[in-house]
Amino acid sequence: MKRFQIAGHVYYVTTVVYGRLRLFTGAAYVIPLFDSLHYYRHRHQCKLLGYVIMPDHIHLMLWPQREDALEDFMRDFKSFTAKRLIRQAEVEGRDDLSTAFAAAGAETGRSDHKVWQDSYWDKNVYSTEFLRQKLNYVHRNPLRGKLVEEIANYPYSSYRNYVLGDDSLIEIDRGWV
């Protein structure tokens, strides 16, 4: 799919765990994502406007502040988190995950282990109204996935940042509001 990198645009980004493996169900596998989001958003000058971490995929609302920042961000984020998640599975003796990562690597033939599907999906956010629509979609994702009955009860979503003022996991950039 062709990407349209337009200066000043916000991007709605989705990336998925290879084979839809339900990896992000516990803090040991989610915290590395937050650590990496925090680091790479500063390194690549991307504002983080929203997010949700679902068991098998993540949605991000990113606002790159320089050209090519989105591609650089996603490449580095996925590479680094893959290494950390593979190491976490090894440390915990999670043979089920280690086997799945190895099988994914063998299937693609490009690495010994693989965590993420190739590439990512992104959509240009062209207006404040569309941004609000996408944030609403992101925040309602745990409801649609039947993970919680109340949006505020899902810990891995920027809904808590916006509505509850909870920046305990990661701070988001609210400057667009």
Written description of the protein model:
- With about 180 residues, the chain is α+β, with helices and mostly antiparallel strands.
- It has a single domain (about 10-165), classed as Transposase IS200-like (Alpha-Beta Plaits, 2-Layer Sandwich), CATH 3.30.70.1290.
- The chain is built from 5 helices and 4 strands, in the order E-H-E-E-H-H-E-H-H.
- The protein has a 4-stranded antiparallel sheet with strand order 2-3-1-4, with helices on both faces.
- Strand 2 and strand 3 (about 55-65) form a beta hairpin.
- The longest helix is centred in the middle third of the chain and has 24 residues, at about 70-90.
- The model has no long low-confidence stretch (mean pLDDT about 95).
Features of the shown structure:
alpha+beta; 16% strand; Alpha-Beta Plaits; 177 residues; 5 helices
Provide a brief overview of the structure:
By secondary structure, this protein is of the alpha+beta class. The protein has helices at residues 27-43, 69-92, 95-108, 128-144, 159-164, and strands spanning 10-16, 46-53, 57-64, 121-125.
Name of the CATH homologous superfamily: Transposase IS200-like
Q: Can you count the beta strands?
A: 4
How would you classify the helix and strand content by structural class?
A: alpha+beta
List the total number of helices.
Answer: 5
**Strand count, sense and closure of the main sheet?**
4 strands, antiparallel
CATH topology: Alpha-Beta Plaits
Query: Using only CA atoms, what is the Rg?
Result: 16 Å
* Terminal CA distance: 30 Å
What's the number of structural domains? 1
